[in-house]
Amino acid sequence: MRNVERITSVKSELLDIFMSMEVDEHAQRQRSAAQRSLRARRGIELHREFQKLSRDIAPLPDDDEPQESELH
Fold first, then answer.
1. Which residues does 65 contact at the CB level (< 8 Å), separation at least 6?
2. Which stretches does UniProt call biased (Acidic residues) (predicted)?
3. Residues contacting 61, CB < 8 A, separation 6+
């Protein structure tokens, strides 16, 4: 009967170890997913910022050339 108790104890410890590993892996996957999401969001923000800057610093029309509204 003592061997059965020992085997049960070892099984229980192994199960506890396995479950804690699963919890740790799950937490790591969640952290990785959150980091990927933040990087993607920042990439989109940077893309939009560059687009806006490109529009903001686009070459202005020369003052020497008559504007279309001035021609009519």
1. none
2. 61-72
3. 67
